[in-house]
Specification:
Layout (H helix, E strand, L loop, with lengths): L1 H22 L3 E9 L6 H16 L4 E4 L1 H9 L3 H8 L2 E4 L10 H5 L4 H23 L5 E2 L9 H9 L3 E3 L12 E3 L2 E4 L6 E2 L9 H17 L3 E7 L12 H4 L18 H20 L3 E4 L1 H8 L9 H10 L4 E3 L2 E3 L1 H8 L22 E3 H18 L5 E4 L2 E4 H10 L6 E3 L31 H9 L5 E2 L4
Parallel strand pairs: 1-2, 1-9, 1-10, 2-3, 4-5, 5-7, 8-9
Antiparallel strand pairs: 6-7, 6-17, 11-12, 13-16, 14-15
Helix pairs in contact: 2-4, 2-10, 3-6, 6-7, 8-10, 12-13, 12-15
């Protein structure tokens, strides 16, 4: 009986300690604003008002600014807006946003490498203008509308922009941040993407309750991120500036641009009040902390792989090619492939295309496989990306089949059994090319299966992000 009592006491202490730890789990709120309307001057005042209100609340947000918006602020002499936004975090939201062609249009027919170069050619000047005008390199990027494309990852890394902050359905991982293409993605946040509606009949209390439930769920699972976003123009207009000018692929001359319909002053004040009260309430929820994109990068560290034993990696990768979560962190399929090849950890991209295996046999000779491994290492070191296929003499193995075969090799047998790929990471990508790119600014019926396919190929780099 005494022993049973002791066990119960120990169990009670353990449960209490676990509850205490969970109660202290941090909930981080990324509040961000797509600051894009360079047609309606009242949108400048909206950005100023929001920035000042948040500063007054002691909350820093991330303002993702369009390159042309920054240049227009400069031309209009709105240094008051620039200074107010600079007290927060400055992200990047493309160079011209909705002026055609938008990123998904001009990247749909390009490969990974040439697409990355084209993205930087078109979008790089805007990021440089933001750095010049605001005095800081943008912390993050997010695509205009649903005009997402995977080639932007490589370009953004080269541009020194390490975080992808936006919302979309092309790729996502358990409604929380993840590493993809070497960037920290806060994207496709599902039930943790919230906002208090500015229009409609939803009472503020209901918005607050929804936030509290999301925060409580994250706390119970060790913490995480809630994403909240708005557009400053929403507070002063009843329709979007780009929808009245660039819908369905339209591209009128600048002299023909029309301003969106305005809200009344009373309506704008009501909207500002909703945001102010929503943020104030969220800030008061125990364990909640507002963070910027720049701060999120510090909280999540780097995409460096966690240490893991080769045997564990081999067992995992021989069965399925997807990320591995360990007690010490996470590894992407690319991380594990490099480890199996005996390479040092480094950031690499996925393959630039999909090539099927032509090797028909069920096995291959040790000497031929060793040569193939050496060639794979050489390709990765030279190109900083995974090859699409590995040559076995005059035949080839797809990168997936090669990875599965490599993982299943005992490094001793004279004949290596060929294993076929199970690219499990592809399930985290959309298979709806029209729905994923549905945006009023895209041409009517626009679909981009090519970008989703290229995105899946970069799924070799996908893995959960874990709070430090």
């Amino acid at each position: 009986m005494q022993q049973l009592t002791m066990i119960r006491t120990i169990l009670s202490v353990f449960l209490l300690a676990t509850a205490t730890l969970r109660a202290g789990a941090p909930v981080y709120v990324a509040l961000w604003f797509d600051t894009e309307d360079y047609i309606e001057p009242a949108a400048d005042d909206a950005a100023l008002r929001i920035a000042r209100d948040l500063t007054g609340l002691g909350v820093r947000a991330t303002f993702k600014v369009v390159g042309e918006k920054a240049r227009v602020l400069e031309q209009r002499g709105r240094w008051d807006v620039v200074r107010a936004l600079a007290l927060h975090d400055i992200g990047y939201h493309s160079n011209f946003h909705s002026v055609q062609p938008t990123p998904a249009l001009y990247l749909r027919d390009l490969g990974y490498v040439e697409g990355a170069a084209e993205f930087e050619r078109r979008e790089g000047p805007g990021a440089l203008d933001l750095a010049r005008i605001f005095g800081v390199r943008p912390s993050c990027y997010g695509q205009p509308g649903n005009s997402w494309a995977p080639q932007s990852n490589a370009a953004l890394r080269h541009m020194g922009i390490p975080v992808y902050l936006d919302e979309g359905s092309q790729v996502g991982l358990n409604d929380q941040p993840f590493w993809y293409g070497g960037l920290l993605y806060i994207y496709n946040m599902g039930r943790f993407q919230l906002r208090a509606p500015l229009d409609g009949d939803e009472p503020v209390a209901k918005s607050n309750e929804r936030f509290e439930r999301a925060a409580a769920e994250l706390t119970s699972h060790g913490g995480g991120v809630i994403s909240i976003y708005y557009h400053p123009t929403e507070f002063v207009t009843t329709e979007f500036w780009d929808a009245v000018n660039f819908a369905h692929g339209a591209n009128p001359e600048r002299t023909a641009w029309r301003r969106p319909r305005r809200r009344t002053e009373a309506e704008s004040e009501r909207c500002y009040g909703i945001l102010h009260d929503y943020v104030a309430h969220a800030k008061g929820v125990p364990g909640v902390r507002f963070v910027t994109a720049r701060e999120l990068l510090q909280l999540y560290g780097s995409p460096a792989p966690a240490p893991a034993e080769r045997a564990r990696i081999a067992t995992h990768m021989s069965a399925r090619q997807t990320f591995l979560a360990t007690e010490d962190g996470t590894l992407s399929a690319a991380d594990m492939l490099l480890s199996l090849l005996g390479m040092q950890p480094e950031l690499v991209d996925g393959p630039a295309m999909r090539i099927a295996s032509s090797l028909a046999g069920a096995s291959l000779a040790r000497a031929a496989f060793e040569r193939a491994k050496t060639d794979a290492v050489s390709f990765i070191r030279a190109n900083k990306r995974l090859p699409a296929a590995i040559w076995i003499g005059a035949e080839k193995l797809s990168i997936g089949d090669f990875a599965a075969t490599l993982a299943g090799d005992d490094e001793a047998a004279a004949e290596i059994v060929v294993r076929r790929a199970n690219l499990e990471f592809e399930k985290y990508f959309s298979n709806e090319p029209r729905k994923a790119f549905d945006w009023p600014i895209h041409p009517e019926g626009f679909s981009a299966p090519e970008l989703l396919e290229l995105g899946k190929l970069q799924g070799w780099t996908l893995k959960p992000a874990r709070l430090r």
